[in-house]
Design a protein that fits this description.
- The chain is of the alpha/beta class.
- The chain is built from nine helices and nine strands.
- The protein is globular.
Length: 242
């Protein structure tokens, strides 16, 4: 019986490992979206920190960017891989991924060993993604080993509140990871009126969070692996005081 259990456990682990393969993971996510989209729920009441049209825009991406919504150019690799490395010694770490839209980030996190990962978003069709607002969640304090704000801070008109709440629900010594798009100086003025906040650099994040930096990816535009029309992607991971 122990042998059978061992075989089953190893088989399950191997299946989860396969989720590292992008095309396989994307197809699973698309299939699950098609199966479960009728269960879609949207938050009843959101805080003032949520930017205008945030929900409608992000739901619209399923139509306007149907091929990209699952994976979003793999930018979450900038947070998931270093987080998995930093939490390698924590068994079944509780990781909250904020603003994932789909299950892709969750499955990817599982494949990297973060089997306790789940999501939080303003809408959800998935049992693995809670419906809620990172500016004011229902989670108890000291609940998570890591909270990842993956490219969602741009939708917040009160980023300080979102970061404060993320720090509240983190355990002492927990990790706060933030990914964002840095807009190039020459394009910033033309889009400034459309922005919910003016956080636009790793230096801005470091000033707001005020915790120890344990990982920094900020190559500047010329050396960025992930360049965008307006600039490039960067990521910072902080460790809270124990």
């Amino acid at each position: 019986m122990n042998f059978v259990n061992t075989v089953i456990r190893r088989f399950k682990a191997a299946c989860v490992e396969l989720l590292k393969i992008d095309i396989l993971r994307f197809q699973i996510c698309r299939l699950r979206w098609m199966l479960y989209r009728t269960r879609l729920k949207v938050i009843d009441q959101q805080s003032q920190g949520v930017g205008t049209n945030t929900v409608s825009y992000n739901l619209g991406v399923f139509k306007t960017h149907a091929k990209l919504v699952f994976g979003m150019g793999k930018r979450m690799s900038l947070l998931l891989y270093p987080t998995a490395a930093l939490l390698g010694s924590v068994p079944w770490a509780n990781v909250l991924i904020v603003g994932p839209r789909t299950e892709d980030d969750i499955l990817w996190a599982w494949s990297l060993g973060l089997r306790g990962a789940r999501g939080l978003d303003l809408f959800s069709y998935s049992p693995w993604i809670d419906v809620g607002d990172i500016h004011a969640t229902n989670y108890e304090s000291d609940s998570f080993d890591a909270v990842l704000l993956g490219w969602m801070l741009a939708y917040s008109s009160r980023p300080d509140d979102a970061i404060r709440e993320a720090k509240r629900i983190l355990k002492p010594g927990g990790l706060l990871g933030i990914g964002m798009e840095a807009i190039a100086d020459e394009k910033l003025e033309s889009v400034k009126a459309t922005l919910e906040n003016l956080v636009n650099s790793s230096a801005d994040l470091i000033k707001i969070v005020g915790e120890e930096v344990v990982f920094l990816y900020d190559p500047k535009p010329d050396g960025a692996r992930y360049q965008t029309f307006h600039g490039y992607y960067l990521a910072v991971i902080f460790r809270l005081q124990a």
